[in-house]
Amino acid sequence: MSAPTASSPEGETLQRWICESCGYIYDPDEGDPDGGIPAGTAFEDIPDTWFCPVCGARKRDFTLYED
Predict the structure, then answer these.
(1) Among 3, 30, 44, 54, which is 20 to 30 Å from 37 by CA?
(2) Inter-residue contact 28 to 62 (CB < 8 Å)
(3) Domain boundaries, the chain
(4) How much is the pTM?
C-alpha cells in the first residue's frame, strides 16, 4: 500500500478555485504562502478572513474552477 499523495487525506485531488473579480486561481498544491496559507491546504480549510492575493476580493468571491 502506497502513502497518500499531497492531495488530500481521502486521496482525492484538491480542487482549484478562481477569483471572479480578477481571474486569480487558488491552487491548493501551491497554497498562498504570502497570505499564510501553506501548500496542500484545501480551499474549504482556508479561513473566511482570507482574501485574493491579487485584487483583495473576499473568499466568497471565488468559484470552483473547472478545467
Answers:
(1) 3
(2) no
(3) 17-64
(4) 0.79
